[in-house]
Design goal:
CATH topology: TIM Barrel
Strand content: 5-15%
CATH architecture: Alpha-Beta Barrel
Number of domains: 1
Distance between the termini: 21 Å
Number of strands: 8
CATH superfamily: Divalent-metal-dependent TIM barrel enzymes
Order of helices and strands: EHEHEHEHEHEHHEHEH
Strand order of the largest sheet: 7-6-5-4-3-2-1-8
Radius of gyration: 18 Å
Number of helices: 9
Shape: globular
CATH class: Alpha Beta
């Protein structure tokens, strides 16, 4: 599987080529950029050009962008509402999609394959109107992304709207062959489990978010620091029809040498893949 890393590990600081180079030197073959304006300002031509220049010079590909969760530089602390494409207010949904489209336009300068998209917020309950809003918003974003060469990948997150079952239902309802899923190991683990979630999502998985937790909270730990059975998880992902990248999405911590920790985590996962699952 392709070794890939999300810049979420550096989300509290500005993204620059030096950070990407460190990941590449230590084995990352592909990158996902997390779209938070204080980290990667997809609305600023100079910042996009700076990052595009690094990708143009190297052998590492941009696998995906993670759609923005907030439109400000302070993760909503400025008072702006979250970027939520299933918000009750239609105006908020339109504003959310406009913000996401600004991120999608990065593809004009740095080609990438997938936009990883959340449906709703963590802990959000399910209501029929939210499902209808999801159908409408996803269809709209797909229409914008497709000419840019980007596929939408909906992520399983800890709420009642973006469960594996509901995500597959959305894909089956819309009948778009190019609409896929991002399988998040940690989110699956704190819900019904990695195996049940992946079994449902398997035919549609195009990319991944790989992280661990102790089944108590969404802590985005390095693989092996929580309680996921990685032998089982790796076997599942390697057998997926579309062979998604092994893309780690880790919460940064002070004092951690990220490139070194990433390299060790990839080694551990690859060894786990060689073992028979329990």
């Amino acid at each position: 599987m392709l070794r890939a890393m999300s810049t979420y590990v550096y989300v509290k600081e500005r993204l620059h080529p030096g950070r990407l180079e460190g990941l590449a030197r230590n084995g990352a073959q592909a990158i996902e950029i997390f779209c938070a304006r204080g980290h990667f300002d997809y609305t600023k031509a100079a910042h996009v050009k700076e990052i595009a220049g690094w990708f143009q010079e190297g052998a590492v590909e941009l696998n995906s962008l993670h759609a923005p969760l907030y439109a400000d530089e302070e993760w909503g602390r400025s008072g702006q509402p979250p970027v939520n494409i299933i918000a009750r207010d239609k105006r908020h949904r339109v504003e959310a999609m406009d913000e996401i489209k600004r991120a999608l336009e990065v593809a004009e300068h740095i080609p990438f394959r997938f936009l990883v998209q959340h449906l709703g917020q963590a802990g959000e309950s399910f209501e029929d109107w939210k499902f209808e809003a999801a159908l409408s918003s996803v269809e709209h974003l797909r229409a914008f992304a497709r000419p840019l060469g980007v596929q939408i990948a909906l992520e399983n997150i800890p709420n009642e709207v973006a469960t594996p079952e509901k995500l597959v239902e959305i894909i089956q309802t819309l009948h778009f062959d190019d609409l896929g899923l991002c399988f998040d190991t940690g989110h699956a683990h704190i819900a019904d489990g990695v195996f049940p979630a992946f079994d449902i999502m398997r035919p549609h998985v195009r990319t991944t978010h790989v992280h661990d937790n102790k089944k108590d909270k969404d802590s985005h730990l390095w693989p092996g620091k929580g309680t996921i059975n990685w032998g089982e998880a790796m076997t599942l992902m390697e057998e997926a029809p579309h062979v998604p990248p092994l893309l780690m999405e880790i919460e940064g911590a002070e004092g951690v040498d990220v490139p070194e920790a990433m390299a060790e985590a990839f080694k551990m996962l690859e060894l786990a893949a060689e073992q028979e699952p329990d």
